[in-house]
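Morning run. Coffee first, then this:
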Amino acid sequence: MIRLVVALVLISITASSAGAAHTKSLSKPSLTVDGINSAGPETNDAALTTKAEVLLDIHHFSPGQIDGKNGENFRKALTASSRRRN
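And here it is:
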């Protein structure tokens, strides 16, 4: 189930970036399903953040846009989830 959600997120990310101008940039490499699924505590990157955003959203703690960024909504959802679990 999580792999399906992550795949849909990646398709959404890819589709939204397809409309961007076709210029060379110094952006990070694109996320992959395997990279997100294998992300764990030892990694500190967009794959791990994306995985956390998807899991938070599944458990009804909205992290905002699932974009792999450690934004304000993500941090608030993470805090709310932590408080609920205690």
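The chain has one domain: 2-14+30-85. Good start to the day.
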